[in-house]
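User: I've been trying to design a sequence by hand for this structure and keep getting stuck. Would you show me what you'd pick, starting by listing the structure so we're on the same page?

Assistant: Good idea, let's start from the same input. This is the structure you sent:
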């Protein structure tokens, strides 16, 4: 799988940004505002249920029924005028801000819908849950604005939607709503915390990622959004997932703030044995940083949405793996049992490291996954895909169980997603602040590499008086010249060492600090691949 095979997420983000203005601006209630969507007493999709009653088990029962039947792809047929929309035409369709769901009900949340077309042709059905009843939200052209670029005639039937987004006034001035959650495209969704800009995405499920036979993209085919109570500071979304290999039911409880927290409950019903499945997947972009600027001709020092994979494993270790934009597809597996947490992190928050006013990479969210309950043995998997541009998502991380999830079984699991700056460092711990590499000796016949790793104390912590030692190991080549010295700028220590790869083309490297006081240190793990 190449990065070119993935959706162009930079184009997608740019497209969504042009339609996000309504939620970012003041939204005042007027009696003459456009009408809200028509909600009719019909569960969505009607073919999957017998009535309009809805409870915690409704979507689970639908997923179980789906799995017992042959897979049927979602309909993609559109009226002729919308069949072949290009970027400019699709961009000229926008949801009318005053038509937002619950616009005039004094709640802390609003819901807006995305039109079908362009990349998003699959019909997605959406319902509202209120008082134990699910009511289908009907598509109507009056909910949208259509510019001169959009072909006519407009659809006059219920064609469904492409997805939706949610805004909130929490932490804002009265009548000011800001977007913080989007579900659109396959099982992708994205969120952010206060003061951040969109970057990394999550997915409901990853299937056959980096497989030679090609990746399978499950789809959230239907959603149910629970109407929040007036004093609720969270919102609940249910989703029905489906693909050729598996169906599933998902429940998201989402609370926005300085950290946006999602509590996720999922039940999978495999149609086939799931041997290549990724739970709680995150999808991000890494182009380059100071760990690797080979053949980079760019005024910016670094370009990425995430700069590392962080793992708190079941054995109590804390691992930091800097991300790479490799020359060839790389898949790394970190075996574990009952992981405490993992995620793709944007650790570097310094604007000077990016120098990109428009992209604001220093404000991109980290995505931290905390399993709930016993996840058993398995692996955190990191997939790094070569890319020659920042418009592609080329990084994927997820958990895969050691044993396949068998066809015909029911697999339940739960986890928490936190969108923000990343997990706070525990007191009295040392973490990797930054790392970089370059050529060490231009006179040597082989390219000896110099690695520099800065370790820092957690914020507010004092460095111990006794200096640590550096522990560095490599699976190949020869490590030499290991040094460790105080590094005042990071309130920590700088470790340097040289690596002579000799004939090796791939070397796994580990580096950490060892303290006389047994102070815990994060372990830097890296794969050198000859670049």
């Amino acid at each position: 799988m190449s990065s070119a095979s993935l959706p162009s997420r930079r184009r997608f983000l740019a497209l969504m940004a042009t339609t996000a203005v309504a939620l970012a601006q003041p939204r005042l209630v007027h009696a003459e505002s456009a009408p809200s969507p028509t909600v009719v007493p019909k569960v969505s999709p009607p073919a999957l249920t017998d009535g309009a009653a809805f409870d915690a088990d409704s979507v689970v029962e639908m997923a179980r029924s789906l799995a017992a039947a042959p897979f049927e792809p979602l309909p993609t047929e559109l009226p002729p005028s919308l069949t072949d929309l290009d970027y400019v035409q699709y961009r000229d369709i926008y949801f009318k801000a005053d038509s937002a769901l619950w616009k005039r009900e004094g709640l802390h949340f609003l819901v807006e819908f995305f039109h079908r077309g362009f990349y998003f042709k699959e019909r997605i059905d959406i319902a509202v849950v209120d008082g134990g009843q699910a009511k289908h939200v009907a598509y109507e052209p009056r909910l949208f604005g259509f510019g001169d670029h959009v072909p006519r005639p407009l659809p006059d039937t219920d064609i469904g939607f492409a997805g939706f987004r949610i805004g909130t006034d929490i932490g804002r001035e009265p009548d000011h709503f800001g977007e913080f959650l989007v579900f659109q495209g396959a099982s992708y969704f994205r969120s952010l915390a206060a003061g951040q800009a969109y970057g990394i995405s999550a997915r409901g499920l990853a299937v056959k990622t980096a497989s030679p036979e090609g990746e399978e993209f499950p789809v959230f085919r239907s959603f149910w959004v629970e109407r929040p109570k007036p004093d609720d500071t969270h919102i609940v979304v249910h989703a029905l997932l489906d693909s050729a290999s598996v169906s599933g039911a998902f429940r998201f409880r989402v609370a926005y703030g300085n950290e946006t927290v999602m509590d996720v409950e999922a039940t999978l019903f495999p149609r086939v044995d799931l041997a290549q499945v990724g739970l709680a997947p995150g999808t991000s972009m890494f182009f380059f940083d100071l760990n690797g600027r080979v053949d980079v001709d760019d005024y910016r020092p670094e370009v990425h949405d995430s700069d590392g994979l962080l793992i708190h494993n079941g054995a109590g270790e804390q691992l930091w793996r800097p991300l790479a934009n490799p020359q060839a597809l790389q898949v790394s597996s970190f075996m574990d049992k009952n992981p405490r947490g993992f995620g793709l992190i944007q650790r570097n928050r310094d604007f000077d490291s990016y120098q990109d006013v428009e992209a604001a990479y220093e404000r991109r969210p980290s995505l931290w996954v905390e399993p709930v309950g016993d996840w058993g043995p398995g692996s955190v998997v990191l997939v790094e895909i070569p890319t020659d541009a920042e418009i592609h998502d080329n990084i994927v991380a997820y958990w895969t169980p050691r044993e396949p999830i068998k066809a015909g079984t029911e697999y339940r699991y739960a986890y928490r997603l936190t969108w923000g700056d990343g997990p706070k460092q525990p007191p009295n711990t040392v973490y990797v602040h930054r790392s970089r590499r370059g050529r060490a000796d231009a006179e040597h016949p082989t390219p000896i590499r110099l690695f520099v790793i800065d370790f820092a104390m957690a914020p507010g912590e004092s460095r111990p008086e006794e200096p640590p030692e550096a522990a560095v190991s490599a699976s190949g080549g020869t490590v030499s010249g290991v040094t460790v010295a105080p590094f005042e700028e990071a309130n920590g220590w700088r470790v340097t060492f040289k690596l002579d790869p000799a004939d090796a083309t791939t070397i796994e490297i580990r580096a950490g600090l060892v303290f006389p006081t047994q102070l815990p240190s994060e372990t830097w793990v890296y794969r050198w691949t000859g670049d």
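That's my pick for every position. To get oriented when you compare it with your attempt: The longest helix spans residues 9-18. Residues 1-34, 40-51 have pLDDT under 50 and may be disordered.
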